[in-house]
Fold this protein.
Amino acid sequence: MDATDHGSQLAIIDAEIARSREPFADHYRKYYEGTFPIWVAIEMMSFGSVSKMYSNLVRTHRQRIAKPHYGLNEKVISQWLRSLVTVRNACAHFARLYRRTPTFQPKICDDDRADILAPQSWFTVLMAARHLYEPWADWGHFVTALETLCDEYRGVVDVRDMRFPSNWAYVLRRPCRQKIPTNHGS
């Protein structure tokens, strides 16, 4: 990334932080002269800014996040984040997703290929989200809420139109390989 892009991204992040009226933001403004640790700043950033920040990291830093935490290539994580930002923005602006094709399709993880009927589908987007979601223990709540929504609109909305497999809820609840706890003590 060049210095101009970096500078404009920092200006956007500064504006997001300045708009925040969170009590923790006021605390850092008052007691730390507006110096925010990254874990605090990220709480005030848009998802798009977080995605851009990750993509703008030097490759070795992206690798230090992607491989040990997600077991994936850093380029895949960048691409997934970009895809999820697109979906999040569409949802935030009440855009229709049903019977539409995602405009920015996430790459498919090798472990997921057998479960994905159509690469360019909303199910593929959910599979990417499944890999990135933290804390993993809460992901099941999302899947249950989605099941409830689909049941509520059964007869109006058919998940097959969004290229979901018949066992979609099971597939979404199944832990990703890197999220399966391992017993290191035995």
Remarks:
- The mean pLDDT is 87.
- DSSP finds nine helices and no strands in the chain.
- The chain has two domains: 3-65, 79-179.
